[in-house]
Automatic annotation (TrEMBL):
<keyword id="KW-0413">Isomerase</keyword>
<protein>
    <submittedName>
        <fullName>Glucose-6-phosphate isomerase</fullName>
        <ecNumber>5.3.1.9</ecNumber>
    </submittedName>
</protein>
């Protein structure tokens, strides 16, 4: 397959379409394409994905589907799902989809049947979870566990932290807290009101070598041992990792370790044992529903026709926006306070995956890659950054996510009439997407009787693209579907751009430099770090530290 997307015929066609698009408004597109909403609204599992407010028309969509074909998306998808080593720079399979295969399926990868392995670990997670939740698992002093503290960072934190918050109304087990940052304030705040006798730590790290996690885990262990003695570690520490030797070396019995595999990337790992803290919070049955939701979208992605395939279409439109229209960032705005951590989760998923300047074969990319993801829940975002989205000079496509129903017991009557607060929330979401797309021109503003000197200020330019993702309710299954929907978009984009979405070499040098600098900070020798700015910052740090 062609790894330089810009040399494909479809790319050339898209470049021509882009020039045409400069002068076409979304209003015109809605007028000239009567079937637009039907054609650009796709269902995937419980998700209804409305792409009609994106700046595309049927010709662009055809060219984007040609682009998928000419860059080999379907072949790459089959390769991923069958366990080929598509993570070429690390020579690994990429099989997060195997984590959610039903128990009776089979998948042999590198000579090993992985579905049985996956379910064996899920069963062990379930047994542990049941014991913690029922009180059968006792701390060293015989007390019931009331708090689980997950210590991990990146994919070993963001997925479980995001999911636990998203599903907080289903959390009926021990309280679950997350510690990630090596900033000591994170751990000390998390432990401040906890009793070591009733606390279990889940040390979650794929490699079990991550500086932040090992520092926090070591400090947590000291906190526990100071209170309860060395023998207490066994009842209060479990590990989630791929590396048994390092877990043992840290002092956690491998019998208390939940395994996963190098074919699960950190940012794709929430469905693996990395989700143990989520399972503790919501129980094994609901965790099963979460995995089933992911699997439903995996199946959709694998089998839906290209023009009805939601992750494929959304991923391709992301390429169109970022690489051709020059819209370099995407705002994710969930109209759900429970999804408050979704933007942060998606930042790692998408930006660590596709923030690359070279292709998988090591050659430089020839178009912009990797959208910058950011966001906050609506309606809060409306009172913060939406001014720029509506009238700023930068066009930022938006993903709106909303739910038809609030969770049971979550909805309340609004101030006025028969409207509920959930309806108010959704009305806001629909209104924002509508205004972004269709704007308000000077004639309409004047028609409102606006004073002439304010007309320019009140004009809303419109033509600001968005996707609206609507689902019945935020349940474990629907959350799983949302995650898989974004995972597969990320995959599609990586294939089109020709990059390896599953490595992250760009984070390594910073880690090595931090390790080298920590000794310099702790010592008092004149710094000689190789650059004058860092040397000066270190001497300034010492002056400030010493008061
Ligand atoms: O940020 C780099 C990274 O390797 C991520 O990809 C990963 O999710 C995170 O660090 C944590 O890694 P680990 O789970 O090995 O501690």
């Amino acid at each position: 397959m062609n790894s330089d997307v810009t040399t494909t015929p479809a790319w050339k066609s898209l470049q021509e379409q882009r020039d045409r698009f400069d002068s076409i408004s979304l209003r015109e597109l809605f007028d000239s394409e009567p079937n637009r909403v039907d054609e650009l609204t796709v269902a995937a599992g419980d998700l209804v994905v409305d792409l009609s407010k994106q700046r595309v028309d049927s010709a662009v969509m055809r060219a984007l589907l040609d682009l998928a074909e000419q860059t080999g998306v379907a072949r790459a998808r089959a390769a991923m799902l069958s366990g080929e080593h598509i993570n070429v720079t690390e020579d690994r399979a990429v099989l997060h989809t195997a984590l959610r295969l039903p128990r009776d399926s089979e998948l042999v990868v590198d000579g090993v049947e992985v579905v049985a392995q996956v379910h064996a670990v899920l069963d062990r997670m379930g047994e542990f979870t049941d014991r913690v939740r029922s009180g059968a698992w006792r701390g060293a002093t015989g007390e019931k566990i009331t708090t689980v503290v997950n210590i991990g960072i990146g994919g070993s934190d963001l997925g479980p932290a995001m999911a636990t918050r998203a599903l907080r109304r289903f959390c009926d087990g021990p309280q679950v807290r997350f510690v990630s940052n090596v900033d000591p304030a994170d751990l000390t705040a998390a432990l401040a009101d906890l009793d070591p006798a009733t606390t279990v730590f889940v040390v979650a790290s794929k490699t079990f070598s991550t500086l932040e996690t090992l520092s926090n885990a070591t400090a947590a262990r000291r906190w526990l041992v100071d209170a309860l003695g060395e023998d207490a570690v066994a009842a209060h520490f479990v590990a989630v990792s791929t590396d048994t030797d390092r877990v043992r070396a840290f002092g956690i019995d491998p019998a208390h370790m939940f395994e996963f595999w190098d074919w699960v990337g950190g940012r794709y790992s929430v469905g693996s044992a990395i989700g143990l803290s989520v399972m503790c919070a919501i129980g094994r049955e609901r965790f099963g529903q979460f995995l089933a939701g992911m699997h439903a979208i995996d199946t959709h992605f694998a089998t839906a026709e290209p023009d009805r395939n939601a992750p494929l279409l959304a991923g391709l439109i992301g390429v169109w926006n970022a690489s051709l229209l020059g819209y370099r960032s995407r705002a994710v705005v969930p109209y759900s306070q429970d999804l408050g951590r979704l933007p942060a989760y998606l930042q790692q998923l998408t930006m660590e995956s596709n923030g690359k300047s070279v292709r998988a074969d090591g050659t430089a990319v020839s178009c912009p890659t990797g959208e910058v993801f950011w966001g906050e829940p609506g309606t809060n975002g409306q009172h913060a950054f939406f001014q720029l989205l509506h009238q700023g000079t930068e066009v930022v496509p938006v993903d709106f996510l909303g739910f038809a129903r609030a969770g049971e017991g979550q909805d309340l009557p609004a101030r006025d009439g028969d409207v509920t607060m959930q309806q108010l929330l959704l009305a806001n979401m629909f209104a924002q997407a509508k205004v972004l797309a269709f704007g308000r021109d000077a004639g309409e503003v004047r028609g409102d009787g606006t004073a002439e000197e304010l007309v320019a200020h009140k004009v809303m330019p419109g033509d600001r693209p968005s996707t609206t993702i609507l689902a019945p309710e935020l349940t474990p299954s629907v959350l799983g579907q949302i995650i898989a929907f974004y995972e597969h978009q990320t995959f599609v984009q990586g294939v089109v751009w020709g990059i390896d979405s599953f490595d992250q070499w760009g984070v390594e040098l910073g880690k090595a430099q931090a390790t080298a600098l920590q000794a310099v900070l702790a010592g008092d020798a004149t710094p000689d770090t190789g650059d004058a700015s860092t040397d000066r910052l270190i001497t300034t740090y010492r002056t400030l530290r010493d008061g």
